[in-house]
Amino acid sequence: MNDATVVRAVDARKSYDGTVALDGVSLDVHEGEVFGLIGPNGAGKTTLVRALTGTADAEGTLELFGDAAGDSDRSRIGLLPQEFGPPERLTARELVAYYGGLYDESLPVDDVLADVGLADDADTWYENLSGGQKRRVCVATALVNDPDVLFLDEPTTGIDPAGRRALWGLLDSLADSGVTVFLTSHSMEEVERLADRVGLLRDGELVAVGTPAELVAEHGGPARFVVAGPDVEAGADPLRDAGFAVEVGTDELVLGDVTPAELGDAVTALADASVGYESLTWTEPTLEDVYLRLTGETFEGTFTPGASAVGAAADGVAGDSDSAPAAEVER
């Protein structure tokens, strides 16, 4: 990544029939940078992508490579929209070849299909591919012109975990080669894994921008220790007496700002009060916590998004080895 600005927005504004979609958005994205844009449905993410690629009008300054977005060289841009429905009675190879034919120069079709993991399914009709395979074909159509900037709106929707990780590796390689990637996603795991910087859009406003680590440090909140079980409420007062801040949830106690060194003290306080539990979970904050705090969204039935023992993950995304460390003890 270098300091050359590839994508630029200054005071971008857009409304639809009186509804504000973009409200003064300003940002710069540099050559070779992966920029992740997150936010709730309706926050304006897709509108911003369309404005930056010149496929929708907006007020303000919107530039690619120093030119007005609508006047930029289209051959240098790869775009994967959130919704994309190509002809279904074409094979994967035919579809990618068709989109490659729209440019004066393009990459070898078979190479692009191999890059997205479809070498063995290149001659399968689009309509007979799985949902994840269809999405990979769509990614291939955005790559076939060998773009210098790549806009991906929810690129891994429907792709299985192995395919998703393979695509992440491909995007890493593209960024390392100098391609700028502008990514929108509801997968906080994906954004935290890929993005050099992240912007959070809420109600058309860019409310936070920074590296994932910076956003987690500033907005993620403290580490949490969760005591789960049907009768754990009895442990609230003993834990408070031991100096812990405790919130009582449904069959759980949530202790905020607990360091690993303090875990033993909490367990001892429970044992001294003869309070049983089914599980103990300690988690550090993640980008998911940042998202929930800044958007005001919550999970039903839990104080502790991101804690594997007490709640389901948002948007079908489960934690794994790339997530923040979690310590869990079962009794």
TrEMBL record:
Coiled coil: none annotated. It comes from the Archaea. PROSITE patterns: ABC_TRANSPORTER_1, ABC_TRANSPORTER_2. Keywords: ATP-binding, Nucleotide-binding, Transport. The keyword Nucleotide-binding applies. Residues 7-228 form the ABC transporter domain. InterPro entries: AAA+_ATPase, ABC_transporter-like_ATP-bd, ABC_transporter-like_CS, ABC_transporter_ATP-binding, P-loop_NTPase. One of its GO terms (molecular function) is ATP hydrolysis activity. Pfam families: ABC_tran. The keyword ATP-binding applies. Belongs to the ABC transporter superfamily. PANTHER family: ABC TRANSPORTER ATP-BINDING PROTEIN, ABC TRANSPORTER ATP-BINDING PROTEIN NATA. This is ATP-binding cassette domain-containing protein.
